[in-house]
DUF2157 domain-containing protein
Amino acid sequence: MITREQLDEAVRRGLIGAEQRDGLIRFADTGSVASEEAKDTPAAGFDEQMRLIGGGNDVFVTIGVVMLSAGLFAALITFLGDRTTVMFGIMAVFLWAVAEFVTRQRRMRLASTVIGLGFLFAVQAILTDWVVTGYGIAMPENPLQLAAMRPQLGIAGTVLLGGVATAAVLYFWRFRVPVMAGAIALCLTALSFFYVTLFLYDGVTEGRLYLPALDDLPDLLRNALYMPLISGLAIFAVGVMFDLRDRERVTVWSDCAFWLHVISAPLLVHPLFIMSTGQDVVFGEIEPGTSAMVMLAVLITVFVYVALAIDRRSLLIPTLAYFGSLGIYYLVNSAANQTGIPPFALILLVVGALIMAFGAGWQRIRGLIIRPTLPTSLLDKLPPIRVHTT
């Protein structure tokens, strides 16, 4: 039997077209491409493909890789003790060698993701041990000690975060594991935060910037939210660029975009919510009133529309999870002081209803909302809307 993965590979090689692939999938599911049921429902292959697990054998091999790695790690601890660099260096080489078979030859998705993340963890451990011992960096006991380590911190942070990002780039170049795109985005985001922090610190110590008073702290922290917002927009833009390169969602770039959208969503949602509602970012107090609830509804609407337009539930799921958890937080803290149903409970109802509705008819909703609201020139660049009509 030909699998979905084989059909996708045939499309990538140009042996068949995407429409032929979708027709074969419908034929396998319904017994006939022209069946009446297939005309009324989206094709089985039209949903966003997460492609995280390749099947039962993939899970089986993943368990084996985890157990084998854990056994080797325990053995290395026994023989090498506290020689961290050597121990994690052996682990990194071992995981790279395993990836040559599991990823390069067998293309097992879940196992490849686990191996790739394990490799990056080993690289991070090596670099952390190297910068700590090489630059004499230790946990400071007071702010003065931290200030004294400023010259070493700049180089150490660059080596650590930049080194992990470089390792992720090399790993992706060799094995094409999509989760590396997310790892690269996280490292570059952390590196941006790090450089901005050093810039502000140097500005204060050199007299170019004034040390803020305690009363200015809320405004300062609120302004600091522009950094994750800009990072989130950049990551989202790269994800959309990958999506536009692969409208049919059959190449590895589409899988990379999935991880980029997962990462960009929290970076976008939290700053936008705090800045638009004026919530307290110092003590983490989140108690939306009427105006905040209106802004929250607007944000949900915007994110839902964007997710529908680019056909990415991976952007919407973290967004709804954030708003849903925010509503639960508010309800729990309000339960002791209020009777009846708090107004913010409506947000939970909306979020739950959206999740259920989108899970049942994502492509049909896309057709009803996106098709009449966007020009044809833009629709031709976005993922096609796969809804059959009689």
